[in-house]
Model the fold of this input.
Amino acid sequence: MKNLLTLSVVSAAIFFTVPVYSMEVSADAIQSIQEYNGNARIVFKPAEKFQITSEKTTKINGMTVFSGNVVVTFKGTTLKTDSITVKKQADGTSLLEAKKFSLEHANVK
Done:
């Protein structure tokens, strides 16, 4: 009986043990990065402003393809990808499509 009680106490102690990290982090700004994979899409309303830079730009069938170190900036957010397609929709919105991209939000507190 005593062994069973000891085993129960030890098991409970192991189960409820929380790892303790002795690390302190400080910085002037924190950057949050989100990654999106597989048919990632962003839609910008007609009045929303965004800017795209890339190494190469190609127009194909009414859409624009940006490739090579593509960077899209808007409202303090940066989107990075290898290639992105921009299609102007009938309602005036801009549809951006990529196989994958990362979003970086600056100064997240």
Remarks:
- The two ends are 53 Å apart (CA to CA).
